[in-house]
Amino acid sequence: MITKDKRLFYISRPGLVRQQILPLLVWMAAVAGVAMLFYHGSQRFEVVGIAQSQVAQVCSPVDGRLKTVYVQLFDNVTKGQPVASLDDELLTAKIATVSATAAQLRSQLVPAQEQLLANIAATELNRAEEQRRFAVDVEKARLDILGIKAQIAADRITLENYAAEVKISTDLLAKNVIAPYELDKAKALYEALAKKVEQTEIQLAQAQEQLKVAQLRQDAFIAQKFQTPSVDAALDAIRKEVAVQEKLLDELEIQRRTLVITAPIDGIVVQILARANDAAMHRAGEGTLHKPGEVVMAGQPILVIAQDKPKEIIAYAKEGQLGQIAAGTKVVLVKNTAPAQIAQSEVASVGPVMEQMPARLWLNPNAPQWGQPLLIKVPDGMKLTPGEIVGIRRL
Fold it and tell me: Would the pLDDT of 393 be above 60?
């Protein structure tokens, strides 16, 4: 027979067991939670980065004096837009020298031609003199072409200056700085010279056709008769000098095209003055904005253009995060400034060495920090301002 005390013992025993097991279960759950936190902590990382846009230096292609800067600080520019021009006085003088040389060589042909005509009158059957006459016609045509090309090159320089004046006048008229007739005057000068260049180009085409005809006549004559070795001797010096001047004119034409400097990218004219140790923002040449009249050397920056929309983010992984990240790692980008945005991207590349982080990313402004640089592309649709801080965590 079970007494009352024994019944109470059997009834209370399961509750006692539960009281002993419950702490054990809590302890095991805590251990599992710590293990999960450790696992996820080893698989995730959180860093901050700086949004960066492409920065392009606009440099002088040749040595020269800066004639005009068509843009100002913070102006919007498009790729291919003229932003500056170099002085063309020296180039114009060189082209004038080519024209003078062509005229001098042409004058040297006059006595030679008169002598040839006298010889032809003496004997129509003189084969060598006939051949010289054909050669003179060819060289005369080449000299005419050289003179016309020199004139076109000089007019094109003036035409580009007129085009720049039209653009400047248009902008000033839009700002009510000048009267409309000033723009009309600039346009009239440009259109008149453009028409002259067009007519001169027609003359050039005609002169080139005349050269072909003269060359065909000479070739036909040579094919019919044996060429005396001394026939070309009288014109050899002139022929060589014409070739030299033609090459020089080609070189000056290339230089002419480099006098007008254009924007290499779409963006804004900037003058970023980063601190010396702000490695992520400092690029050589930033802050350079020369004024008209200054002498610039080939390769020297004149101004800097930055894209207004960042294309990439530079972040830095700390030493404790090394090994958790590689190219292709999926990440989440968090923009906290208004309007706040969250977007997904991936790590494009990882730097090979630890670098000093930009000062603005240091926890303590007096204690430099180091990290492994990460390059992350900005996804389409995410609106960032160059230099903006972006939060980054692993997806």
Answer: yes
Query: 299's torsion region: left (phi>0), alpha (psi -120 to 50) or beta?
Result: left
Q: What confidence score (pLDDT) does residue 373 get?
A: 93
Q: Give the pLDDT of residue 324.
A: 80
Identify the pLDDT of residue 234. Answer: 56
Check whether 76 has a pLDDT greater than 60. yes
When comparing pLDDT for 237 and 57, which is higher?
A: 57
Q: Check residue 279 and give its pLDDT.
A: 39
**Of 141, 144, 135, nearest to 113 (Cα)?**
135
Tokens found for residue 264:
């290499």
| Mean of all residue pLDDT scores within the chain | 79
Burial pattern 180-197, b for ≥16 Cβ within 10 A else e, equals eeebeebbebbeebeeeb
Alpha-carbon distance 286 to 100, whole Å? 44
Rounded to whole angstroms, the Cα distance separating 105 from 237 reads 10
What letter represents residue 258's amino acid?
Answer: T
Give the span between the Cα atoms of 287 and 303, in whole angstroms.
8
